[in-house]
Design a protein that fits this description.
Distance between the termini: 30 Å
Number of domains: 1
Helix content: over 70%
Largest sheet: none
CATH superfamily: MetI-like
Structural class: mainly alpha
Number of helices: 11
C-alpha cells in the first residue's frame, strides 16, 4: 500500500514539476500556463497595461506635442451639444458644457498616470530602499530614517497639502509632492519590518557563517525575499495615488478646474446624475477599473513570485 510519505512526496514532486518546467519549454507556453491558472490576474494585467499605455500616450501628446490624442478636444465647450446621451458621435455622451466625455476620460488618464508614476518612482521605491537599509543595518541608519518618518507621520498630511495649495495654488505638482513624501515614509516602515525579520532567518546566519559578505547577503538573499512585498507595494501605491488624486479633484482641491480629470468629471456630473447617469457612470468605471486592476495584479504577482505561496495557486 502507498504510504502517506509517498503520497506527500508525489504531491511535492508534482508541484515542483508544474513550476519548474523543462529548460526547453518556450516562455510563451510558461506564461500561458500562468494566465490560465490566474485568469483574474491576467485580466488585471490587461487593464493595467491598457491604462499605462493610454496614460503615457496622453502624457507625451500633451507635454511634448501640446495636443491630445482624443476624438474631440477634451476642453472644447459646445453649447449646442450639452448633456447628450451616448450616441455614435459621442459614445460616452457629453457633459453640461457640451464636452465629449470619452475624450475627457481618455485625456484624464494622463493625470492619474503621472501621479501614480511619480508616487512609485520618486516615493515608494526610494522609501523601500531606505526601509531595507534601515532594517538590515539598524543602529544609527535605522535611527535616522525611522525618527524622520515618525516626525513626518506626526504632521497631518491634509494640513500640509492645504498650506501648499494656499501658498502655491492648486496643481498636479503639489498633489504629487505630498503623495511622494507620504509614499517614501510609508514604504520605508513596511520594508523595514520585512527586512528585519529576514535578516534573522536561519539561512542568513548560515550564509554569514560560511563567509558571505554583508553586501552579498543583502543583495543575494534579503532583497529577493522582500521583492514580493515591494511588488505588492508598488501596485498598492499606484492604485492609492489614483484614488487620492481623484478624491481631491472631486472635492475641488485637486488639479485646476477644467482640467481633464476623472475626479473633476465625477464631481461635475453628480448634480445631473439622476437624469443623465452617464456623467458619473463612465468616470466612476474608469477609476474603479484602474484601482481594482492594480490591486488584483499586485496580489497575483505576489502569489507567483513568493515561493511559499506557489503551491496554493
Amino acid at each position: 500500500m502507498t504510504s502517506h510519505a509517498q503520497i506527500a512526496t508525489g504531491v511535492t514532486a508534482q508541484t515542483a514539476e508544474d513550476w519548474r518546467m523543462a529548460p526547453d519549454t518556450p516562455k510563451l507556453v510558461h506564461y500561458g500556463r500562468l494566465a490560465r491558472r490566474n485568469p483574474v490576474g491576467f485580466l488585471a494585467l490587461i487593464v493595467v497595461v491598457l491604462f499605462v499605455l493610454l496614460g503615457s500616450v496622453q502624457w507625451v501628446a500633451h507635454d511634448v506635442f501640446d495636443t491630445a490624442v482624443t476624438p474631440y478636444e477634451p476642453e472644447k465647450i459646445s453649447a449646442s451639444e450639452q448633456l447628450e446621451g451616448p450616441s455614435f458621435d459621442h459614445p460616452f455622451g457629453t457633459n453640461v458644457k457640451g464636452q465629449d466625455m470619452l475624450s475627457r476620460i481618455l485625456a484624464g488618464a494622463r493625470i492619474s498616470f503621472l501621479v501614480g508614476l511619480m508616487a512609485v518612482t520618486l516615493g515608494f521605491v526610494p522609501g523601500a530602499i531606505l526601509g531595507i537599509a534601515s532594517g538590515y543595518f539598524q543602529r544609527w541608519v535605522d535611527y535616522v530614517i525611522q525618527r524622520t518618518g515618525e516626525a513626518w507621520t506626526a504632521f497631518p498630511v491634509l494640513f500640509l497639502y492645504l498650506a501648499l495649495i494656499t501658498a502655491f495654488g492648486q496643481g498636479l505638482k503639489i498633489i504629487a509632492l505630498v503623495i511622494i513624501v507620504s509614499s517614501i515614509f510609508g514604504g520605508s516602515r513596511v520594508l523595514r519590518a520585512v527586512a528585519l525579520v529576514t535578516k534573522h532567518a536561519d539561512y542568513i546566519e548560515a550564509s554569514r557563517t560560511i563567509g558571505a559578505t554583508e553586501m552579498r547577503i543583502l543583495f543575494r538573499h534579503v532583497v529577493p525575499n522582500v521583492m514580493p512585498i515591494i511588488i505588492v507595494g508598488i501596485s498598492t501605491v499606484f492604485a492609492t495615488s489614483v484614488l487620492v488624486e481623484s478624491t481631491l479633484s472631486f472635492l475641488g482641491i485637486g488639479v485646476q478646474p477644467g482640467t481633464p480629470s476623472w475626479g473633476i468629471d465625477l464631481s461635475a456630473g453628480q448634480q445631473f446624475a439622476s437624469y443623465y447617469p452617464h456623467l458619473v457612470i463612465f468616470p466612476g468605471i474608469a477609476i474603479s477599473l484602474v484601482v481594482l486592476g492594480f490591486n488584483l495584479l499586485g496580489d497575483t504577482l505576489r502569489d507567483i513570485l513568493d515561493p511559499r505561496l506557489r503551491g496554493s495557486i
